[in-house]
Amino acid sequence: MTSEIASALIPFLFSMGAGYFAGRIKQGALPLSSINTMLVDYALPFALFLYTAKMQRASLAQHAVLIAVLIGVMLVPYFASLLVSRAVFKSDLAHAAVRAVTIGMPNFASVGLPLLRAVYGPESDLTVAIAVTAGAVVMSPAALILLERARPAAPASSNEFQGTDGLLAKALRNTFLKPVVLAPIAGVLASVCGWTLPDLLSQSLNIIGSTTAGLALFSTGLVLAAQPFKLDAQAGFGVLLSNVVQPLIALVLVSLLGVPKAIAGQAVLLAAIPCGSFGILFGLSYGVRDTSAGTTLVASSLLSAVTLSGTIVLLGHL
């Protein structure tokens, strides 16, 4: 069991550590925005399209219940964080959105594939692909819509309805034109239609798409290095939601929905993955820097060495 845990956790901790070390050494000289653009607009969309386009239609149907579990796992902490940030900590909408997505969307893209492969083998790739796709389709709009709504108000001479229905329509349009949202939707459509990707196209997309895990982990380390660390009640609440509440939600949902044991274990382990940096990266693209989200990301990543180990041990006894 110790060897299994080490092989699952050490590679992703090392990659994040490398990014953190590079960020501290370069003191902000590394172009994080360019790396973010490469990751969010190219590498991750290419990988998502490949994963989803290669799914079998039968597999999609069999994993429908998994999608429901993952959506619950993400949205419950997302709305809990959003509500507490706005009602208790009196945060503005943009900062609350960054915090909620940071907490609600685990680092599926970076940690999921190496972690689940180490524990469950290559057959877990489809589960990871579904998780990444669900995160992109559900949580990316959840972040982008609120960030669009929180943009500075338009000049008074413009359409006065820009702040209500017009702004929401613009937010939805901008959200679903993002490559990270379009790519998995296109891949699912290709799978449902039974279209087989040409080998040359797969190989071409995979050259960039295969860099996703390493690039995402490295960029997470860069983000960690750039974050001011201020452990307060907001950050503590976020870590509690991410590292403890999310896997418990998954455990309850897989039990209630009767998810098969193998897939149930994978769902719980995915839910135990620490916070991802996409909420923070989305925020940076809108000029929003949230210290609490950064602290939550750092603390959740560090604590995950303990919580992931405990989850793996627990699943081994179930």
TrEMBL record:
GO terms for biological process: transmembrane transport. PANTHER family: AUXIN EFFLUX CARRIER FAMILY PROTEIN (PTHR36838), SLR1864 PROTEIN (PTHR36838:SF1). The chain crosses the membrane at residues 6-23, 35-53, 65-84, 96-120, 126-147, 180-198, 204-225, 237-257, 263-284, 296-316. It comes from Paraburkholderia phytofirmans OLGA172. Keywords: Cell membrane, Membrane, Transmembrane, Transmembrane helix, Transport. The keyword Flavoprotein does not apply. It comes from the Bacteria. It is found in: Cell membrane. Belongs to the auxin efflux carrier (TC 2.A.69) family. Signal peptide: none annotated. This is Transporter. It is a multi-pass membrane protein. It holds the Pfam family Mem_trans. One of its GO terms (cellular component) is plasma membrane. Its main location: membrane. InterPro entries: Mem_transp_PIN-like (IPR004776), Na+/solute_symporter_sf (IPR038770).
